[in-house]
Write the structure tokens for this entry.
Amino acid sequence: MTASISEQELFQRLKLWRTPGIGPMSLRRLLQQLGSADAVFNVSGQLLQTTGLKPVVIEALQSPSAETLAGAELDLKWSTTSAQRHILTPEHEHYPALLADIDASPPLLFAVGTTALLNDPQLALIGSRNPSREGRDNARAFAAYLAEHGLTITSGLAEGIDAISHQAALDSGGTTIAVVATGLDMVYPSQNRKLAEQISQAGLIISEYPIGTKPLPQHFPRRNRIISGLSVGTLVVEAALKSGSLVTAKHAMEQGREVFAIPGSIHNPMARGCHQLIRQGAKLVETAQDILEEIAPQLAPYLQDGNTPQAQTSSSRPHAPKPNKQAIFEVNWDMDEEHKRILSALGSEPLPIDQIILNTGLTADVVSSILLMLELQGFVVACGGGHYMRQTPRE
């Protein structure tokens, strides 16, 4: 357990957080007006009335239920059974500075993993639970490339784009944060249990929900404000018009964060949400370099010598690689032989992929994968009809 307040005050805040009718805004207001959670449970009902709480909530605070007390004890016990388990309050050095700036920031964060990651530069990468093959490939390539260049990939541990993005970040040697809508004593969906274990070992899983909280539908839209709030920008890979990803993007816009969207075919229903976002002002991206160039000003605080404003930098965390600071701005890339071979086979005229395969002697799967990566990095442009040509990346 890590907390910069007393265990008694933490226990009182856990009680307060579990009290029916108390949300992030009301809890913050109570702490501001009364000074501590301990005071909230020890002042008169008359004084509580001045805080604007409803009578039923005041009654619950003056006579906490057995369920509330047992729940707070369960939360506290959970946090003490492993060095990887934490409960963070806004006073803690690792409580994320960006998240603290949003409206309705979580008063408590339950966490498993490396909490220092919370103040590292993050990009939210989200999308459909049932993506197309192109969407899967894009998520994998963007997440891997951005993670390799120093960004922590943040998503929601859902099926589809979320899970692919988390896994790609880990596979590339980068870091990832999963923001979930349940208590941290369970994994939802259950098929992501192995992935969740990987993230807890090499990254971080967080939730604002107490231990034992089940995956109720109303929790997921509320969770999405945290995904966007942690991040300097949000990339929507693929999304239908009624996708929950659009909720996250809306939160990001309201929070003053960058929103990016990858365009797709007009015949792909999973691209319509991205097209709508672009019409609403999201930035259309074709390469990962587009994102890095756009968010460079927001990343400046992370590139200063020493610590970030409220947390340790990546150089002090035990499980994650040090961000490639030079790469974040200059996006230089050391190519392996297969990438060089494909680039050498391309010229200024469109070449069909079958001819590229023939000229390089590589398999179709390898060529397709590398072409996508080269396209994301700005070295190759797709000309339609399975044709590709070489281009010079923008300075």
User: Anything to note?
Assistant: The chain has 18 helices and twelve strands.
